[in-house]
Every structure is written in structure tokens, then in C-alpha cells.
Design brief:
single chain; 31% strand; 114 residues; 6-stranded antiparallel sheet; Yope Regulator, Chain: A
Length: 114
């Protein structure tokens, strides 16, 4: 089910506030709202409002092995550093689930800014 872009944007704004994140903005990736730090996308919400987040390869393998995330496939290619973390029916619960992954992704983005 496609979630309207404005609803996804508001959900990201709530996520940013919940995580007490500063120095980020909301951009667009693949037509979806995304959290960006100095030009680097850390995560975005898919059209069905699942969190797609960029982590390290090991983090992605661990989350997939634990059954807490799914690999991201674009065409025939599985992306190595991106995973999909499912959305829960309740927005607050989804934000709680996503928050640690977003904070981790932003930590990596900050560390890799030149």
C-alpha cells in the first residue's frame, strides 16, 4: 500500500525529533523523503513507508540474519549496505524500532564526510 509522500515526510520529521538529531535536512531519494547529512543520504522511507537505511556491510548482514531487516534489491542487484526495516502499524512503535538504526546510519555518514 502506497503511503502519501506528505505522511511519510511527517513520519521522518517525527523520527528526527524523537532521535534529537540536528544538522540534517529532509531530501528526496527515489521520489521518497530521506534524511540527509551534508549531502549524504542516511535513510529514506519507501513508498509503503518502510525504513530503508544505509549501514555497514556487517550491520546489514547481522540485521538480516537476526530477521530484523530485509536486503534491498534494485533490479537484479542486492545492495550491500542498505536494508529495509519494516514499518509497524503504530507510528510511535515504528519510530522506536527505527531510531537506533537511523542514529547509527547518521554516525557513519558523519564519520565519512570529508
Amino acid at each position: 500500500m502506497t503511503v502519501p509522500i506528505e505522511a511519510r515526510r511527517l513520519l521522518l520529521e517525527d523520527l528526527i525529533e524523537h532521535c534529537r538529531i540536528d544538522d540534517v535536512d529532509i531530501a528526496t531519494m527515489f521520489g521518497s523523503p530521506a534524511i540527509r547529512f551534508r549531502g549524504r543520504i542516511a535513510c529514506f522511507l519507501s513508498h509503503d513507508a518502510q525504513l530503508i537505511v544505509k549501514l555497514t556491510r556487517q550491520d546489514t548482514l547481522d540485521l538480516i540474519a537476526e530477521g530484523r531487516a530485509e536486503p534491498v534489491v534494485m533490479g537484479a542487484r542486492t545492495l550491500k549496505e542498505w536494508v529495509t526495516v519494516p514499518r509497524l502499524d503504530d507510528d510511535r512503535a515504528a519510530i522506536e524500532l527505527w531510531a537506533p538504526h537511523v542514529v547509527t546510519a547518521l554516525g557513519y555518514a558523519r564519520a565519512n564526510v570529508s
